[in-house]
C-alpha cells in the first residue's frame, strides 16, 4: 500500500523550494549586475526547475511502468545537466565575490531539491488517495 508523505516532509519540501527560489531572486534583485546578467541567471533557475521536475517524472514513470519515450527521457536529463553546466559557467565567469557565487549555487541546488521533492510528494499523495478510494469502493 502506498503511504502518503508526512505533513512535516511536505512542508519541508515547500519551504526548501520557496526558500531557494526567493533567496535566489532576492539575491538577483539586490545584485550589482547588468539586467541581461540577471535575466541569464533567472532563466537558468526557471529552466533548472522545469528540468528537475521533468527528470523526476520520467524516472518515476519508468519505475511504475508508465511509457516514457527515450527522447523525452534523454532531453530531460540533458536539460538538467545543461542547467547545472550553464550555472557553473556563468558563475565561473562572473565578477562576483566567491561568497556570492556560492550563495547562487546553493540557492539553485536548494530550489532544484525542493522542486523534485514537491513533485514526488504530490505524486505520492495522489497515489495514496487513489489507493484509499479503491479500498473504500471495495468495502461498499
Topology summary:
Layout: H1 7-30, H2 35-63, H3 70-93, H4 98-139
Helix pairs in contact: 1-2, 1-4, 2-3, 2-4
**Basic shape:** elongated
Q: Helix-strand pattern, N to C?
A: HHHH
Global mean pLDDT? 92
Uncertain regions spanning at least 5 consecutive residues: none
**Largest sheet, if any?**
none
By helix and strand content, what is the structural category? mainly alpha
How big is the Rg?
Answer: 18 Å
Helix tally equals: 4
Strand % is: under 5%
Helix-residue proportion: over 70%
Structure overview:
Helices cover 85% and strands 0% of the residues. With 140 residues, it is mainly α. The chain has a domain at 23-117. The longest helix has 42 residues, at 98-139. It is elongated. The mean pLDDT is 92. The chain crosses the membrane at residues 7-28, 40-59, 71-95, 101-118. This is YiaAB two helix domain-containing protein.
Summarize this structure briefly.
Pfam families: YiaAB. With 140 residues, this protein is an all-alpha fold.
Which short descriptors sum up this protein?
140 residues; mainly alpha
